[in-house]
């Protein structure tokens, strides 16, 4: 008859019930927060692409630091706007 408590040889050392780390972990960020941050990143990078396009067509006369500063403002603005409007705008599945 087998011992239901298990012996020291049956388990890995330590109190961790899942020593392999295969159990699902709680995400670091909530999905809505992660999505908002990613949309902010997309907005900031889109601004930098636009600024680079203008730079290729002609001289903007704006330094690198100013472009990065504006891109950060755009990124933060896009992330905040995405987070605040989540749930207010219909998704593609909600056509009514």
TrEMBL record:
One Pfam family in the UniProt entry: DUF7981
KW Repeat (keyword) present: no
Domain annotation DUF7981: ranges: 33-92
Region Disordered, annotated ranges: 1-29
Transmembrane regions listed in the UniProt entry: 37-54, 60-81
Keywords in alphabetical order: Membrane, Transmembrane, Transmembrane helix
Domain of life: Archaea
Signal peptide boundaries: none
InterPro entries referenced in this protein's UniProt entry, alphabetically: DUF7981
Name the UniProt record assigns to this protein: DUF7981 domain-containing protein
